[in-house]
Structures are given as C-alpha cells and as structure tokens.
C-alpha cells in the first residue's frame, strides 16, 4: 500500500516536474526505473526503499519507480511507457536478460540512455546500454574461493550448492569460484555440485544427501547465505562438525551464524549500495560524465575476523 | 455380450496381481535399483533422513487425500504452506512459540474455511477456487511480509525446534507427527460416519444427497482438514529451517497431488486411502533422495516422477478394467 502511494506520488511529482521544466529552467532530470520483482525477496525490497530514499535526497532528480512483478511482458510495456514519457534515463533490472533486449534497443533509438542494474542483459544487448551497474559475480565467486583456500590451507574436499540453474548470478558465481579455486588451491577438490535454487529448505535437503553420501566433507560453498545456512542446519542436525561454510550475499542469518562462530565467511553485498550505485550511474550518464561500461560496486569479503566492520544486513 | 468379452480377456494370474499392486511393485523396484547403485541408500540414517524430509509433503498429502476422495481438488496448499510457515516463524519471536502456533493454525483454518465455503456451500468448481486461492494466498503472504524473509533469532534455545529437529525414542519428531496424522485420518476415513460420507459424496454426490447426507458440510469439512494438515506441515517446516522465504511452499501443491495420485486415490473421487497416499509420499521422497545420491540434479526427479505417475495410473486403470490395453475404455 505504502509502496503504491509512494509510486503514485513519485509519478505525480514527475508530471508536475515535467510541466515546470517547460517554463522554469530547472535542471531536474527524470529517471525511470523498472524493477524485476520487488515484493518477492528482501534484497529487492530493500533495494527499492534505498533507491527512493537516495533519489529523494537529491533535489535535481525526479524518479518514476515501476515494478515488473517478474513479468517480462509487463516490463517491456513499462519500458515503452518510459520511452513515451521521454525520461532522461532508464534504469532496468531485467526480468529476463534476453527478452528485454528489443525494448532496450528501442530506448536507445529514442536516444534515452539505459542503465542495467544488478544483473546484466544478454550479450546482444550490450551495444544498446550506457552502462551496467551492479556486483561483479565472477569476482564474488573468486573471493569465496580465496576464503575457502585460506580456511582449508590448500587441502580437502568440498561440495558446492549453486543458485537456480540458468540465473546469470548463479552461473557467474560458480564459474568465478571454480576457476579461482583451481588457481589458488589446486589441492582442494570439489567433489559434487548441486543446485539449491536460492532456497534454504531445498539446500538443506541437498546437504542432507551430501552428508549421507560423503563421510568426509571439509567445506561447503553456497551461492548465497540463505542456502549456506540451510546447509549449516543440515550439518548441525547430523552432528557433523569441522565443516567450513562459505556463502555469498551476506544475509542476516549468515551474519548471525558467523557471530556464533559456525559460519566462516561470505560476500558483503548491500542492496543499498546496489541502488545508490545505479542511481549515481544514471545521473553521471545524464550529465555526460565518462562512466565505465561495467560500473561495479564494491562487494568485499566478510569473515568472522572482520565482521565488526560491517553492519548486520537488514534482510 | 461386451461384458462377457471383457471377462474372457481379463488379466489372469501373475499379470493381474502385478497390475493390482503396481504402486507397491514400483516402490520395491525403485528401492532395489537405488540400493544397487548407492551403498548409502538403504542405510538406516538415510532412510530416516528421507522419511523426515517427506514428512512435510506427507502430512499435507494426507489432508488433500480427504479432499480428493470427496471429489474435489485442493491446489491452494502450496501457498497456504508459505503463508502458514511465514506466519508461525514471524510470530515466534513476537508472541512466543505456543501462541504463534495457535494463531497460525486459526488463520490457516480461516483460509480452509473460505475454500470450504466457496466449494461446499456455493458449489463453485474446486479447481478454479483453489487455483485462485493459490495466487491469492501467495499475495497475502507477500503483503504480510513486504517481501522480507522471516527468521527465528534464538534457534538453539527455543522448544519450537522439537517439531523439525527433535527426536523421541530415537525417532525424528517429523516422522512421528507424520505417522500420527496418518493413523488419525485413516481411522476417521475408514471407521467413522464422517469418513463414509466423504466416500459417498465423492463417489456419487446425487445419491449421497438423496440419502440425507449434507454434502455441503462434508465437503467444507474436508477443506478444514486439508488446511489443518497444512498448518501442521508448516510447523515442521518452520522448525526445521528456523526461517522462511515468502515462497517456501511454491510447487508443493503439485508434489502433494502427485503423491496422492501415485497412491492410487482417484481424482474423480469416491475411492482411495490414506495409507496408499503414504506409500505415494515415500516413493516421491526416495526417488528424490536416490537421484541426489546418484549425483543427478533435482530437476531430473521431475522427469522420473512423471514417468512413475504415468506408470502408476496406467497400472491402476489396467487393474480396474482387467487388461493392460483396451480398445474401448
């Protein structure tokens, strides 16, 4: 409800902003954003809040905040609406990296710069975007591999629980992890990988099977903390100690498990940084600044040792 | 004439027996197959793990069996599980575990009552009502949480942990709950007047109504039972995971229905049993676990499950009409 009110207020402000812009020479810029699926997870919900907050602090920026609700068709329609409204820039959180490419091209043809946020669009769409703002998931996977290497001192066997098959984030983290692990820790072997679908319960079931199957597991790498904590639950229930758990996208449950000393480390990826970075990228693009095509924001390693430098994630 | 021809072609001897016990045979074949390829499969630890995992789907499937025997469907249980789990986990820290369970069960029963009213009293099509409820309840859950995950903060000290993680007499509590619910609902269906009314209403609604059975009430009650079972499953799930995503029950409605069908409960209503559903649940659980132990991803299980369901349904039909292939029906 509040979200709807916020959106309509934002839209109203934009409309009046546009009306004013004709007369007064106000240097306001209008940025439209079409998000993937706000209601379904904590990360996206926090992202939207942070985005609206950051935009409201900047008097020169008016935003139109839209949500595709996970629906590709709706997202394409929202893109067309934003093009019609001749916004100064469009930020898109793709519902699908391939299907939105034609809509992105259309915006490009209308000379509206497009900034892709959080997860990138397909290769064939890259020439139509001004910049990608988001986490570098390959690097995140590599960081996790380095932490695993430190924790295991270059020997042992580990299992991997990956995100949903087909998700770019899942694929990139897995690749980053596997490639880097082979480089820095050739004697740590990944004995099996299974998808856990970003789902804690599913990951717990997968881990239970791993624990039955392998008498010796030294470490678990999970594609995010939600799944990592699911795996930890399974190991605790089975009474298996001395397993190193490393995740990514630090969740509050992972943070707490780290504080209890049960979870080794993760990657600190803040939706607030993600949202701010997207907004700033859009502003810089509009102002004509030189923006890197891949405008990553920093996602540092977080472990039991340095966790006091990070605030507990809100999701 | 036709009857005579049919009879003469009836499956006899071994073939007939095989077809009649199709589901049990499939179960045994799978168990042997997996045991041959994975030495860990039939260890007691693994068997316990599988039944413990299957308990959540199992408890829900028992409730849905009652609905299906009564001649209706319940597809809303998936998002109802999401709703109930989110509710019980979220309220746990706010008002205490016992109160959270009570409030959640009441809320879940209200949803069940709504299903029951629409389908039992307004006589709306159960597929349409519960399919609609499936997305409506998911929406409700998202409105409730605003998209945030919910977690229980002191996982190691709350007695709520007993439902998903505890053991009594060396048996995991989820398995005990599963067994108790199965026995109670089995007794209700097989030995009480209500049970007989459910079969009557599902088998021949017209005849049931003319025999003085209050069809509305019987059907509405079956949805209350289904909702209550989903509430119990939510307690197990919430306690096992100690947290919940908004869509944690997504897809459970189909797993549950698959288990019911595998057990041989007719989707047309009027026949079926809880004990068969239990076997259906176990088959699904062991297939999933066995494939994981063999190193296949979970989505391979969807394919295998489909094949097993088709085989089970075919053998079931074949047993009823007395032959494997039939040109007429």
- Kindly report how far apart the N and C termini of chain B lie: 16 Å
Helix coverage percent of residues of chain B? over 70%
Strand order of the largest sheet of chain B: 1-4
Strand fraction of chain A:
15-25%
Helix and strand pattern of chain A? HEHEHEHEEHEHEHEHEHEHEE
Report on the architecture of this protein:
The complex is a heterodimer of chains A (315) and B (329). In chain A, α2 links the parallel β1 (29-35) and β2 (61-67). Chain A has two domains: 2-135 and 272-297, Rossmann fold (3-Layer(aba) Sandwich); 137-268, Response regulator (Rossmann fold). Chain A has helices at 2-23, 42-57, 72-84, 101-109, 137-152, 168-184, 200-213, 225-237, 252-259, 271-286, and strands at 29-35, 61-67, 89-92, 114-117, 131-134, 156-162, 188-195, 219-222, 244-246, 265-267, 294-296, 301-303. Residues 1-25 of chain A have low confidence and may be disordered. Helix content of chain A is 46%, strand content 18%. Chain A is an alpha/beta fold. Chain A is built from ten helices and twelve strands. In chain A, the strands form three sheets. A six-stranded parallel sheet of chain A has the order 2-1-3-4-5-11, with helices on both faces. In chain A, strands 7-6-8-9 form a four-stranded parallel sheet, sandwiched between helices. Chain B has 329 residues and is an all-alpha fold. Chain B has one domain: Orthogonal Bundle (ABC transporter involved in vitamin B12 uptake, BtuC). Chain B has 15 helices and four strands. Chain B has helices at residues 2-8, 13-20, 22-37, 44-69, 77-95, 97-121, 126-145, 162-165, 173-191, 193-203, 205-210, 215-241, 252-262, 274-293, 298-321; strands spanning 150-151, 167-168, 171-172, 243-244. In chain B, α4 (44-69) packs across α10 (193-203), α4 (44-69) crosses α13 (252-262) and α4 crosses α14 (274-293). Chain B is globular. Chain A binds chain B through residues 38-42, 44-45, 165, 192, 194-195, 199-202, 204-206, 208-209, 212-213, 226, 229-230, 233, 237, 251-253, 256, 315, and chain B through 38, 40, 43, 45-46, 49, 53, 142, 146-149, 151, 153, 165, 237, 240-243, 245-248, 288-289, 292-293, 295, 297-299.
